[in-house]
């Protein structure tokens, strides 16, 4: 996995728990919640692998050994190879040397068949008129397996163990012929086993501050011992009842010996979580949130983009002087314009009155 892909995977996982506005204390609490989710998934998978036994499909002892060693998901893959090595593979020839046995394994594989071509009526003959449609056809392939009986090493030309870390069906076919009851230890990778993570490390929680690691290890070991005892006696009701009575008696003795601890306050829990006391005065404040360009919905616009948008807007001009850089209320000629407007109105009124008087005189003179 590349570094970029690993970072994207981590960001996708932690984005469900954290937020950009989280404080440092909240971030640590949310980080612990994310780790708790991974621990829960690990505990569930370990329970399926340890506390239950898978269904066996062959009477071979090597399948039983694989079910007890591998995890559940890996055992399903190994079981497919064991079944294929028992039913689809066979030994064609075998040569024995002083140290090694060389076997040639034939495997029958179903591959998609060929679809017949469409033939015109004019070109059709008695040979190609009728052609059978074959969807699948059997193909036999050969593989070479070298098995050393002294050190238990085995090599197959398909190189499945080199690519995936599990033995192939051709090797299991050789193991069946040689009556091998267990998978060799050198071919059981540690990462595929059920006991890879010890109980004390699996249930250990990442806490900050001062803690006693010895007490934590003892507590984890005690809980794992109780769970293992319960899993062993899950089908025996009398022993499980007796074990429960002993636990109740032990609990009553512990309660009588240990004093009652009062409930802790929030400040005490924060002090235990961080390992430092809360200061009397807050000197360091949380930083303000910085929004990156293009991240939020209302992105930050540049000066050129703002100028272009302003130039496209239709501006209204002033009603007094006609310019577009101001309006009627902020016009510098507003004081002088008000008097001119009044004088103009009076002149218009006098002209109207004079016109009417002259008209009247003319009418009277004419009359």
UniProtKB/TrEMBL annotation:
Keywords: Metal-binding, Zinc, Zinc-finger. GO terms for molecular function: zinc ion binding. InterPro entries: Znf_SWIM. It comes from the Eukaryota. Coiled coil: none annotated. PANTHER family: OS01G0519700 PROTEIN, PROTEIN FAR1-RELATED SEQUENCE. It comes from Artemisia annua (Sweet wormwood). Residues 143-179 form the SWIM-type domain. This is FAR1 DNA binding domain, Zinc finger, SWIM-type, MULE transposase domain, FHY3/FAR1 family. Transmembrane segments: none annotated. The keyword Zinc-finger applies.
């Amino acid at each position: 996995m590349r570094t970029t892909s690993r970072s994207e995977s981590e960001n996708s996982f932690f984005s469900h728990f954290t937020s950009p506005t989280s404080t440092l204390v909240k971030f640590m609490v949310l980080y612990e919640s994310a780790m708790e989710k991974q621990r829960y998934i690990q505990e569930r998978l370990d329970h399926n692998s340890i506390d239950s036994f898978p269904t066996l499909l062959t009477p071979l002892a090597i399948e039983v050994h694989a079910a007890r060693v591998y995890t559940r998901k890996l055992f399903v893959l190994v079981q497919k190879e064991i079944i294929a090595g028992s039913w689809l593979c066979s030994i064609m020839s075998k040569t024995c040397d002083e140290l090694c046995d060389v076997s040639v394994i034939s495997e029958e594989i179903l591959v998609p068949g060929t679809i017949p071509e469409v033939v015109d009526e004019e070109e059709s003959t008695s040979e190609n008129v009728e052609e059978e449609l074959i969807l699948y056809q059997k193909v036999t392939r050969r593989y070479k397996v070298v098995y050393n009986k002294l050190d238990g090493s085995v090599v197959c030309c398909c190189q499945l163990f080199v690519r995936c870390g599990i033995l192939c069906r051709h090797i299991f076919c050789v193991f069946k012929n040689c009556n091998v009851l267990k998978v060799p230890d050198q071919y059981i990778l540690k990462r595929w086993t059920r006991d890879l993570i010890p109980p004390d490390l699996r249930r250990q929680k990442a806490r900050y501050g001062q803690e006693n690691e010895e007490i934590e290890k003892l507590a984890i070991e005690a809980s794992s011992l109780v769970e293992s005892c319960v899993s062993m006696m899950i089908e025996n009701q009398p022993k499980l009842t007796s074990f429960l009575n002993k636990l109740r008696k032990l609990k009553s003795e512990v309660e009588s010996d240990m004093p009652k601890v009062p409930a802790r306050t929030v400040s005490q829990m924060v002090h235990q979580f961080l390992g430092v006391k809360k200061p009397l005065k807050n000197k360091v404040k949380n930083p303000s949130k910085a929004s990156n360009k293009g991240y939020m919905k209302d992105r930050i616009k540049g000066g050129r983009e703002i100028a272009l948008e302003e130039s496209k807007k239709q501006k209204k001009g002033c009603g007094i002087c006609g310019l577009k850089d101001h309006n009627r209320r902020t016009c510098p000629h507003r004081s002088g314009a008000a008097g001119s407007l009044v004088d103009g109105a009076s002149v218009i009124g006098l002209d109207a009155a004079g016109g009417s008087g002259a008209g009247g005189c003319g009418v009277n003179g004419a009359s």
